[in-house]
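User: Structure please.
Assistant: Input sequence and predicted structure:
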Amino acid sequence: MPSLGSHMTRARLIAERLRLPEIDADRGSFYFGASAPDVRVITRLDRRVTHFYELDEYERQDSVERMFRENPALALPAGLDTAAAAFMAGYLTHLVLDEAYIEEIYRPRFGVHSDIAEEPRRNVLDRALQYEIDLRDREDREAMADIGRSLAACSPVAGIPFIQDEHLQEWSAVVLDVASHAPDYARFKRMMSRHLAAAGLSGDEIDRSCEDPEALVREAFERVTPERIEEFWEDSAQRMYDRVWRYLR
């Protein structure tokens, strides 16, 4: 699924298109919400707790509908304060974008029913693709600086039923740090090592693979072309726009 840089920059594009007062009143909480489902990095809880999506279910799922069905108090933004409403609008962008990526990119190109289902490195290629598209999104330094300023100016939202307040507090520091990362391959080995090891590579093989990140990226783009990624961004942007508009209007 898209990494945090992509989630926040893509949420920013949606905010710029929507120009709704509920979002513009607290852009920091909106961007924080766009990152928040990945707080499971801290909580270590099952992904479904924050993403409302079952990776092992292959029928069509609606993670936003499931979240609101399980947490009806969040479904009506008029009942939330300014920060919480902006946070939840951002949260929707993350759920919609992940859902779209799973169904349009991961499953058909890298999943267990894809034509490389038996390839041990299929998840490695997916992660390399995610890293690269995140890197390219971060190349908009003006956007990332704006996101960083907005995050620094807001206080972590509290009272989200399925995320403890202390975890959101801790996550806010993580996200602020992530927003400052440069668009380079400095973190590539750290991110990829676990997936390369799971694919059966030795320590030396992992080192060699990570010496040339662009080689893995090129291989990933043989599975999903840059043109297909652009189509995905266009489709997912409209899906995010529509879902947030319906939520706030």
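The CA atoms of residues 12 and 146 lie 9 Å apart.
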